[in-house]
Design goal:
alpha+beta; 8-stranded mixed β-sheet; 14 strands
Length: 330
């Protein structure tokens, strides 16, 4: 449902989620309106009052740093490959978020929905379903799973706000996100070298692939968002907030009413950078098609329906192809 009263913006707002979390239709509507304005405008917003404990966020960064400080051989014991279901360690320069440019100057570790070995989807070898790869870093597994659960719950709450703002039932997305293709991604960017390859960044210009991203960063800076007029806007560190942005999947679902905005990461000078991103993608069998109310006679549906796993595959393979790491064989 298009809202002509919502204006485009080239600034990144800070939105307090607390009125929505504390309940009540009035608070939910107010927060949903702010989120909708950001989603239709710059496509990014900071989220405060989110309820994820500070000590849990700190623990995730602590365990992430400890992992990346281990030797290369140890990290490669959990190496990402076509068979690991988008899980595991991606070495430095192991992906190109902008496939037309030099490989990204970063390393990463991906964690997916943690399924039991006897889960039917594991036994069936379903796409993007695999057992997580756990390094020997003390406390790593428990910390990451606790954090995964917390931010996944937060992402579902955000979808309640999206549904409210779009004029849909509040639980519209619930059965499409109850077993999601979600990824928790730990990221380490080295200090910017004296010479970069042509067009090389910590993370090349790209849009995210899923529905919504919840990013926690350290205070090193480096994230930049491209405004509607093509300028690069720094997204500075704001304590106790998440940087949230719309991904390509939700943009497609809303028939381009919500905006997936290009962004990049510039490696900081004189120091390393760490961040923790959570990408919430729909269930593999969720059908992504134009939402009710998002098409009109003047704005008809732009995209055919597609399964969630097919859409993710179409996005991941170009990212890893240049480095010889395919997200999935088929």
């Amino acid at each position: 449902m298009l809202n002509k009263d919502i204006a485009m913006t080239d600034t990144i707002p800070v939105i307090d989620l607390k009125p929505l979390l504390e309940g009540g239709a009035e608070g939910r509507e107010a927060v949903a309106k702010q989120i909708g304005e950001a989603c239709r405008g710059i496509g990014f917003f900071y989220l405060s009052g989110h309820g994820v404990p500070a000590e849990l966020r700190e623990a995730v960064f602590d365990r992430s740093n400890a992992f990346f400080e281990t030797g290369e051989d140890e990290k490669r014991r959990s190496l990402f490959s076509a068979a690991t279901g988008n899980r595991g360690f991606i070495p430095m320069k192991g992906e190109s978020l902008d496939p037309t440019k030099a490989p990204d100057l970063k390393e990463a570790f991906n964690i997916g929905l943690d399924l039991a070995p006897d889960d039917p989807e594991i036994l069936a070898g379903a796409r993007f379903r695999a057992l997580n790869l756990w390094p020997e870093t003390p406390g790593f597994k428990k910390t990451m799973l606790d954090y995964f659960d917390a931010v996944c719950s937060l992402g579902r709450v955000l979808h309640e706000a999206f549904a409210t703002e779009l004029g849909l039932p509040i639980d519209f997305f619930a059965d499409k996100l109850d077993k999601p293709l979600a990824t928790l991604r730990l990221l380490h960017y080295p200090e910017s070298p004296a010479q970069l390859e042509d067009g090389q960044y910590g993370a090349g210009e790209h849009t995210d692939y899923g529905c919504v991203t919840l990013l926690a960063t350290d205070d090193a800076g480096g994230l930049e968002v491209r405004t509607r007029d093509g300028q690069w806007l720094p997204a500075p560190y704001i304590p106790d907030t998440f940087v949230c942005n719309i991904g390509d999947c939700l943009m497609r679902w809303t028939n381009d009413i919500y905006v997936s905005t290009p962004h990049r990461v510039v490696n900081p000078s004189g120091r390393e950078r760490y961040s923790v991103a959570f990408f919430l993608d729909p269930n593999p069998d969720a059908i992504v098609e134009c939402l009710p109310g998002c098409a009109t006679e003047d704005n008809p549906a732009k995209y055919p329906p597609i399964r969630g796993d097919d859409y993710l595959l179409s996005k991941l393979n170009p990212t890893y192809e240049k480095a010889g790491l395919m997200a999935e064989a088929s």
